[in-house]
Design goal:
This protein is of the alpha+beta class and 307 residues long. Strand 8 and strand 9 form a beta hairpin. It contains six helices and twelve strands. Helix 2 runs antiparallel to helix 3 and helix 4 packs antiparallel against helix 5. The longest helix has 26 residues.
Length: 307
């Protein structure tokens, strides 16, 4: 059986909610029984039995953890029939993060990211590099997915850059496209943006939060440029610092980008009617599109969109 068939067969298995706990208890019980049996053996047989016990426990532990393991970023790409992207996630240029933040009822895990050109076989952009990031969302109480109080379109996953206004560098200015699907009570986000490697000599974040545009009711920017969530922000949220390679930075491209999207920032909050931005949201059958533009301007069909 090849890996794909094995994974398919494994995914079709059904595990009870207390499967992991019961299996661990059985392993401990069997280990105690074998330990008693070992006391009546010769040294040689006892040594062999100890090795056997360790091997069995290790094998079963792997089987238990496999039932709860996340998909890899490559497997997430394969779910969308993206073989080139899947191979890129397996390659030396991919960045593994696997960092988890607990917030509210959720565990938020940034699995990894990769940057490159023409990795998307469905939506190729011959002129630009893109960054693809994968995040997993699961409930702390392990509740079945159908019981989640969850709406894909109510969460935002977006890059941010220290020293830059969150209004200047985000999903909308980076022309993002987000997709998501559920598997084994985990919801996976695959985010496609313009490459963020041009900012690699700065501190670059990946933010995930329950909300909408990255305004000053959600984020605050310190005097040194560091970005954080506001102390009074109560939605589900996580902020990851990305381990980008500074050698891949492109200061000229970054400065040109910021010159185009220099939108300013203030931590002082204003009422919505005093804001400088208008937001439009369009729901389709399989995705949500969000458009952000300055007030008092007419739509020209070229707004940046993303989820």
């Amino acid at each position: 059986m090849n890996q794909k068939d094995y994974r398919k067969a494994f995914d079709e298995l059904s595990f009870s909610a207390d499967f992991q706990e019961r299996t661990a208890d059985l392993l401990r019980q069997r280990a105690r029984e074998l330990e008693k049996e070992r006391s009546n053996m010769t040294f040689s047989k006892s040594k062999k039995m100890a090795v056997l016990i360790a091997a069995c426990i290790a094998l079963l532990a792997v089987s238990v953890s496999a039932a709860y393991a996340w998909l890899t970023p490559a497997q997430v790409a394969e779910e969308y029939d993206q073989p080139l992207l899947a191979e890129a996630f397996k390659g030396p240029g991919a960045i593994t993060v696997s960092e988890t933040v607990e917030s509210g009822d959720y565990a938020i895990t940034l699995l990894g990211l990769v940057s490159g050109r023409n990795l998307d076989v469905l939506n190729q952009d011959l002129e630009k590099d893109h960054t693809y990031s994968v995040l997993a969302l699961s409930r702390l109480d392990k509740a079945p997915l159908e019981n989640w109080d969850f709406d894909f379109s109510s969460f935002v996953m977006t890059p941010l850059v220290a020293g830059c206004s969150p209004l200047a560098v985000n999903n909308w200015t980076l022309e993002a496209f987000a997709q998501g699907f559920a598997r084994d009570n985990v919801y996976y986000f695959l985010l496609d943006t313009a490459s963020i490697e041009m900012f690699a000599d700065r501190t670059v974040y990946m933010a995930f939060y329950e909300g909408f545009t990255p305004d000053n009711t959600i984020f605050t920017v310190a005097d040194d440029g560091a970005i954080a969530f506001c102390d009074d922000f109560t939605g589900v949220h996580a902020l990851f610092t990305l381990p980008l390679d500074p050698a891949k930075a492109d200061p000229a491209a970054a400065n040109a980008f910021l010159a185009e999207y220099d939108m300013g920032w203030t931590n002082e909050r204003s009422s919505p009617e005093e804001g400088d931005w208008e937001v439009e949201r369009y729901e389709t059958e399989d995705r949500t599109e969000i458009f952000l533009r300055p007030k008092d301007t007419q739509s020209d069909g070229n707004q940046n969109s993303g989820l």
